[in-house]
Design goal:
The protein is α/β, with parallel strands linked by helices and 242 residues long. It contains 9 helices and 10 strands. Helix 3 packs parallel to helix 5 and helix 6 runs parallel beside helix 7. It is globular and about 45 Å long.
Amino acid sequence: MRPLLELKDLHVHLGTLYIIQGVNFRVHEGENLAILGRNGAGKTTLLKSIMGILKPSKGSIKFRGRDITGARLHERARMGIGYVPDTRRIFGSLTVRENLLLGAAGIDKKIIPERLEFVLKIFPDLAKLMNHKARNLSGGQQQMLNIARIIVNPHRRLLLVDEPTEGLSPLYVKRISEAFEVLTREGVTIILVETKPLLVKRITKRYVILSHGKIVKEGDSGELFENPEIMRRYIGVEMRGG
């Protein structure tokens, strides 16, 4: 079966820094993947390269069998790739509704009400905040809006998510985890950079661990809970509940 995403011998330099050093992996539709590693391992750089924000110095990226290595960011977005960065890039001076409508730009206007209803079912907390300025939301609410603004577009088939629960309370971690489960059932494939066991266990099927820009270990996500030494050794995280 043809993979949804395939990386072959990917190398990425940032100036004189050699960040990604020959990464290879495949992701099939519905096969959510966790990208794990310590700070500075290259996780964010890898996501940005897949999205087209950074240009590889060597190697290839294929999406649905098409070579997109040279495609621009907006072209990849139109193909169905969405990116949720680790910084909450919302428009603070706009309302929640206006942020969501910006995310829906370019789709058929007839289905916008349906898509708004879809994201508000996933993030019901936002329903009562539609007319609030985004800058006045809590950190958890802003992160939900950050994700909702991307997925309001029905064409997203691959979602690249960078540490979505960083700094959030357990309540919002749980809600975002539940939202990703809904998206998976809707046919969205997720590549997740995260260290919280709750998300890794509930959302992903497989994992890869990066160290100094190279994949040093990969396997089924369940293995991380059967052998917590993997997380302690490679990431410095204890695998406990949430």
